[in-house]
Design a protein that fits this description.
Blueprint: H1 7-19, H2 28-38, H3 45-56, H4 58-67, E1 75-78, H5 84-93, E2 98-101, H6 109-112, H7 114-134
Parallel strand pairs: 1-2
């Protein structure tokens, strides 16, 4: 793989700076930990597979959603991608999607704005639990 032995440089000099919007949100210790994890054998396999599947399985996922729509609550938390997260989930799940868009936050929302992410998640969990308790 092109990144083998260069994980820290890729993450610290390119990926995080290019995809974050909150200065200082990803620390040197964070980069060190991500680099340690991704430098393991097949360390990028999961991340790479996720993005590859998004490019090749879109029609399959949409067909599955049409055939067997989700019946559980769905929350889209979008950040640097604008409306992409909501639009993608809406097309794929076949049911309504509650959406929260975090302003001024890049791709790594949980690292960049953990309090905003929690503020988005907690009411959703509360409402999902209330619906679950009714059934």
């Amino acid at each position: 793989m092109l990144l083998a032995g260069r994980e820290r440089e890729f993450l610290g000099d390119y990926a995080f700076p290019a995809m974050t919007a909150v200065p200082g949100s990803v620390t040197d210790a964070d980069v060190t930990e991500f680099a340690r994890t991704y430098s393991r054998p097949a360390g990028f396999r999961g991340a790479g597979g996720l993005y590859r599947s998004m490019l090749s399985e879109g029609a399959d996922i949409t067909a599955l959603a049409d055939a067997q729509p989700l019946t559980v609550p769905v929350l889209a938390v979008g950040a640097g991608g604008g409306a992409f997260t909501e639009a993608t989930l809406s097309a794929a799940v076949g049911s309504s999607v509650r959406s929260v868009r975090l302003q001024g936050v890049g791709h790594y929302a949980a690292l960049e704005a953990p309090d905003q992410v929690a503020t988005a998640l907690l009411p959703f969990f509360h409402d999902a639990d209330a619906v679950s308790a009714e059934h």
